[in-house]
Amino acid sequence: MTFLAIDVGNTRLKWALYDAHRPGATLLAHGAEFLDHIEKLAEGSWADLPVPQRMLGCVVAGDAAKRRVQEQMELWDVPPQWVVSSGEEAGLINGYDHPSRLGSDRWVAMIGARHHVLAQGPARPLVVVMVGTAVTVECIDAHGRFMGGLILPGHGIMLRALETGTAGLHVPTGDVRMFPTNTSDALTSGGTYAIAGAVERMVQHVIQHCGEEPACIMTGGAGWKMAPSMTRPFELVDNLIFDGLLEIASRRFAG
C-alpha cells in the first residue's frame, strides 16, 4: 500500500513515497522542487515512481499551488487529500482561537513531534520549532493540548527587510559570532539570536505554565543552521511534517 506524502511550503514542495501509510514505514523515494517548477513533477521525478495507492498532504502556499500539484497527480489514479487543521486529530487538541485557521504545516508538524516524544517515553510538555521561510515556535502541554505559538520571520525575510529599509546594507554571507566585528557577521548573528531568543522565551513560558522542562524539537530546512546557537538542548528531527502525515494517515486510512 504505497503512500505519497506532500508538503507544499512557501518556497518548495517536498514529497516522500513510503511503502505503507503508517509511522515507521520504509521510505522508497523522496525529493523537492521549488514552487516555480511544480509543472515538471509528472514528467520528471514522479514519472517512474511506483503508483501510490494513497496520498495525503499539507499546503500553506495557497489554492493555486494546490491545484498545480493536483494537476501533476493526474498521471496516477489516486485522489488527492489534504490536511485541514481541526479541533482534534491523532491525539492532539487544538487550542487556537479558530482551529481551522491554524496553518496545516504547523498542525501536522506538531502531531509528528508529539508522537515522536511519546515513542521515547512518558508524555511531557513540548516545544516545536520549525525553521523555514518563516519560523514557528509551538507549545504543547503534557496532555497533548496545543497551547499556542509564535510566528516570526526566517533568516531570509529578516535580511531582505534590512536590505530594503536600510541604506548601504546588503544580504550578507556572514557567520554567527558572539561579538560580531563586521556588518555581515552582525546581520547573520542578529537574525540567528533573534530566533534563538524567541524560542528561549517560549521555553520559559512552558516551564512556568506546566511546571516542568519541555522536550524541545527543531525541524525545517534551516534547522541545522540554528541548532548550534540555541541556549538549551534541542533534538533536530528531519521531515517532521512527513512523520505527522504518516501518523494522520494511519488513522484516516485504517482498514
From TrEMBL:
Cofactor stoichiometry and binding remark: A monovalent cation. Ammonium or potassium.
GO BP of this protein: coenzyme A biosynthetic process
Active-site residues annotated for this sequence: D105
Keyword Transferase: yes
Residues annotated to bind ATP: D7, V8, G9, N10, T11, R12, L13, K14, T133
Catalytic activity: (R)-pantothenate + ATP = (R)-4'-phosphopantothenate + ADP + H(+)
InterPro entries in UniProt: ATPase_NBD (IPR043129), Type_III_PanK (IPR004619)
NCBIfam families: baf
UniProt name for this protein: Type III pantothenate kinase
Native source organism of the sequence: Acidovorax soli
